[in-house]
Amino acid sequence: MRTVSGIQPSGNLHLGNYLGAIVQWVKMQDDPGDSLFFLADLHAVTVYHEPAQLRANVRELTAALIASGLDPDKAILFNQARVPEHAELAWLLFCVARIGWLNRMTQFKEKSGKNREGASVGLYAYPVLQAADVLLYNATHVPVGDDQKQHLELARDIAVKFNADYGADIFVAPEPLIAGPMRRVMSLRDGSAKMSKSDPSDMSRINLTDSDDAIAQKIRKARTDPEPIPAEPEGLDGRAEAKNLIDIYAALEGCDRQAVLDQFAGQGFGAFKPALADRIVATLSPIRTRFEALKDDAATIDAALEKGAARARELARPQIAAATAAMGL
Ligand code: ADP
Ligand code: NA
User: Fold this and answer.
1) Ligand nearest to the CA of 12
2) Residue 248 belongs to what H/E stretch?
3) What spacing in Å lies between the alpha carbon of 89 and ligand 1's midpoint?
4) What's the CATH architecture for 3-183+297-327?
């Protein structure tokens, strides 16, 4: 088993990223087989960006991942741009992928909006770079959120077509992995929207860097309803905000929804919220302390990334050699 996961270096991490992805990553580094984690800086440049800000974001996100428990001695942690084989393989795969396949990608339609003709070629083609990101390492499993399933399908199609076109078993078609303890952490202000860094309201999310007081305040103000906490999960039907808070508690505690209901049934959210805030603080406050200690230590962060890139390149080079040879290059 070999897993590859990427994350865009764009600003603060939040509780959704933590419960939806990072918790699982931290577990995966102890599973047998290599676990590769990369910061997708080559993806970040598909849209307008400030160069200095991007560099700062890469370091900040690296510090946040290490603070969250990713160990650069166990996991292979690096930024994409320092492993040129990603871009090299992407070119080979551009010549295998079909324009019709890319035209079906719904995310490009969403991200380019009305100004499709004005979007960068990189934004259009980046699902092929994503395919290269995982095929480069013959990843067997890729953790994907719902929004990325279509891109993983594309990677599988590219792997199959490359092998068929060049009569070789060079690429493994990767399988999706179920996400972390909570697939969708919802906004604290609106139970029908995902918690996201792109939500303009900071009250909608818990950032990994929020102070204990800020966490308590955001949970206190989180939207709920006047009904008490039910004894059975069915009692949460149609109560998206209430269900979300219960599920966050369960995910942090590592238990199921029923166990939380058993503990709090009959109480109102006025009583539950302080317990939830304490539970979040207990998890995030040590992460924040480690992050604060590491975030300005550029030398340590860069050294971790460099080591990860060297290890990644060792795995990538034979795969590039095999693919170019198969293509007659
Ligand atoms: P955002 O939606 O804030 O821009 P990203 O798209 O950068 O976050 O996601 C990084 C990782 O975190 C992905 O694996 C994604 O599936 C996961 N993730 C993001 N938001 C949530 C959420 N609200 N609930 C669960 N997982 C999430
Ligand atoms: Na592992």
Assistant:
1) 1
2) helix 240-253
3) 26
4) 3-Layer(aba) Sandwich (3.40)
